[in-house]
Design a protein that fits this description.
The complex is a heterodimer. By secondary structure, chain A is of the alpha+beta class. Chain A folds into three domains: about 1-105; about 115-175; about 180-310, Heat Shock Protein 90, CATH 3.30.565.10. Chain A is built from nine helices and five strands, in the order H-H-H-H-H-H-E-H-E-E-H-H-E-E. Chain A has a five-stranded mixed β-sheet, with helices on one face. In chain A, helix 1 runs antiparallel to helix 2, helix 2 packs antiparallel against helix 3 and helix 3 packs antiparallel against helix 4 (about 150-175). The longest helix of chain A is centred in the N-terminal third of the chain and has 83 residues, at about 60-140. Chain A is elongated and about 130 Å long. The N and C termini of chain A lie far apart (about 90 Å). By secondary structure, chain B is α/β, with parallel strands linked by helices. Chain B folds into two domains: about 5-140, Rossmann fold (3-Layer(aba) Sandwich); about 145-210, Winged helix-like DNA-binding domain superfamily/Winged helix DNA-binding domain (Arc Repressor Mutant, subunit A). Chain B is built from ten helices and six strands, in the order βαβαβαβαβαβααααα. Chain B has helices spanning about 15-25, 40-45, 65-75, 90-100, 110-120, 130-140, 155-165, 170-175, 180-195, 200-210, and strands at about 5-10, 30-35, 50-55, 80-85, 100-105, 125. In chain B, helix 2 runs parallel beside helix 3. Classes of the chains: A alpha+beta, B alpha/beta. The interface of A and B includes residues 134 and 188 of A.
Chain lengths: ~325, ~220
């Protein structure tokens, strides 16, 4: 009996010290201090339990102290637990803040990337482009009748190289950031993107939109453009589709994009596949814009993606409110 | 023949200077002036009267589209030809609407630049083939949405329109059709009114859109 009591007292002291050591690690250490004190008091009660064996005459006083200790322990534990509850709330808030700041970092990265891409595309196209054009004009202005033999071969070669450079510069700059998007807005940029895919002639694309020259915030235009390009890329790479239909509709401050393809489709719940297709990227592009994107498999075959977001017009073409 | 004075409006200094060297080497060219943006160009028009303006589109301050509109408001007779890096339909359409007499891409061979300048200086339009090709392709692959209904043109007017599209001047059209120049002038004016277009360039686009000519 005595041994069991002594062991329990030792454990209670250990618990008290352990609780006390937690104070260094967390906020609201008052709760750990309270709990340590409670454990200490429990240990004291244990000692009091042993006392009657030695001081039989003090039994009634010991009983009174024991009750008092019991009440204080209950109160201490109660307050301690209340503080622990606040601690958990606090941890949750920290977690939310962390997630939010992660999101912000991601958005900042995307934003910076877009900005840099745009600048680089512009520098290439407007800085180096005219220089190459001018070299081309100059070489083509050479009086060919005065050039023959080896020199003529060299000049023809230079011409070919310049043409190739101009083509690849245009391609690179447009891939980095399509200038049409900046100058004429989302509908024009998507249209031009589709025309380029049409040149390959692999899939039939029908595109209809009521946007005309409507302009939106540049962040909305860029992100939407990237998402639409990604959708087309997924279709071309994975879907084995023959037809694609894209609809963009703006009405009463709501912009709706619907994208269908008649390919093999995919399971929107299959997260492994989703990452490969940049789907989480699409979500994070839309999140700051307060937009939603939804993927649905259609039967018998194909996929439907719909994007909805609320936005105001930045500028509208004539005759359009 | 009197020598042609050219004004180059472009924000890229090296491009301007390079083109100037090439142009000055042509015996048809008199003087070549330079402006680095639309605002400077509008100012220069007060002192110079160029036979042809070669106009870039993307420029700081006042861009090519706005500069063209504003210059033509003040000097309706001025000939402005777009000279751009971009051959996209959007730019093309906007410059035509602004009233240019032609559209040339910066990556053209110099022989084409020369041809365009000479064509334009004779009062005709010049559109680089790449643009026409894109345009025709566009209307081929995609039926025209909300197109203006084809207005009733007389057979003679359609004939005149086809010749305008070929780049003939009014005098040449008169000679081809064995009619007087005044009659051609009259047909041209009535074509512009009927199709609600503002110049020969937009008339050509109208003809392409309505598949009245083969390009």
């Amino acid at each position: 009996m005595k041994i069991a009591l002594i062991i329990s007292i030792v454990f209670q002291f250990l618990a008290a010290f352990y609780a006390l050591s937690l104070t260094r690690h967390t906020k609201f250490n008052i709760s750990w201090i309270l709990i340590s004190i409670a454990f200490l008091l429990i240990a004291v009660r244990g000692i009091l339990d042993i006392a009657p064996f030695y001081y039989k005459e003090l039994q009634s006083e010991i009983y009174l102290i024991d009750r008092l200790l019991e009440i204080s322990i209950a109160v201490l534990l109660l307050i301690g637990v209340i503080f622990i509850r606040r601690l958990f709330k606090f941890l949750k808030r920290i977690d939310d803040i962390r997630r939010e700041s992660e999101n912000k970092v991601l958005q900042a990265i995307m934003h910076t990337e877009e900005k840099e891409r745009r600048q680089l595309a512009k520098d290439l196209h407007d800085g180096i482009g005219p220089l190459l054009s001018n070299i081309k004009m100059s070489v083509s202005a050479l009086d060919k009748s005065q050039i023959s033999g080896f020199n003529k071969t060299v000049i023809d070669n230079i011409s070919n190289l310049i043409n190739e450079s101009i083509t690849s510069l245009k391609y690179t700059s447009n891939n980095l950031s399509p200038h049409i998007l900046d100058s004429f807005g989302i509908a024009s940029a998507v249209n031009s993107f589709i025309e380029n895919i049409n040149l390959l002639g692999k899939i039939n694309i029908s595109f209809s939109s009521n946007l005309e020259d409507c302009r939106f915030d540049s962040e909305i235009e860029t992100n939407l453009y990237r998402i639409i390009c990604e959708l087309f890329q997924n279709t071309v790479k994975h879907a084995l589709a023959t037809n694609v239909s894209l609809l963009m509709h703006f009405q009463e401050n709501r912009l709706i994009v619907q994208y269908f393809d008649d390919g093999i489709g995919f399971d929107p719940a299959d997260s492994g596949k989703m990452n490969g297709m940049g789907i989480s990227n699409m979500h994070s592009r839309l999140k700051p814009l307060d937009g939603e994107i939804e993927f649905k498999k259609i039967h018998p075959k194909g996929m439907m993606t719909s994007i909805k977001l609320k936005t105001k017009l930045k500028s509208a073409p004539h005759g359009k409110a | 023949m009197e020598k042609l004075n050219i004004l180059i409006v472009d924000d890229h200094k090296l491009f301007r200077e390079g083109l100037k060297i090439l142009l000055l080497n042509l015996e048809e060219i008199g003087e070549v002036w330079e402006a680095s943006d639309g605002e400077m160009f509008l100012g220069m028009l007060k002192m110079h009267s160029p036979d042809l303006v070669l106009m870039d589109i993307e420029m700081p301050k006042v861009n090519g589209i706005e500069a063209t509109v504003r210059a033509l408001e003040q000097y309706p007779e001025l000939k402005i030809m777009a000279l751009s890096m971009y051959g996209d339909e959007e730019y093309f359409q906007k410059m035509i609407d602004a009233g240019v007499c032609g559209f040339l891409l910066k990556n053209s061979d110099f022989s084409e630049v020369k041809k365009a300048i000479l064509t334009a200086s004779q009062g005709n339009n010049y559109f680089t083939e790449e643009i026409l090709y894109r345009l025709v392709n566009r209307f081929k692959t995609k039926p025209l949405q909300n197109a203006d209904p084809l207005v009733a043109l007389s057979d003679r007017e359609i004939e005149v329109l086809r010749l305008i599209c070929k780049g003939l001047s009014n005098q040449e059209i008169a000679d081809t059709l064995f009619i007087s120049k005044r009659t051609v002038d009259h047909h041209r004016a009535s074509l512009l009114t009927k199709t609600d277009t503002r110049n020969a360039a937009s008339l050509v686009i109208y003809a392409i859109k309505h598949k009245m000519i083969e390009v």
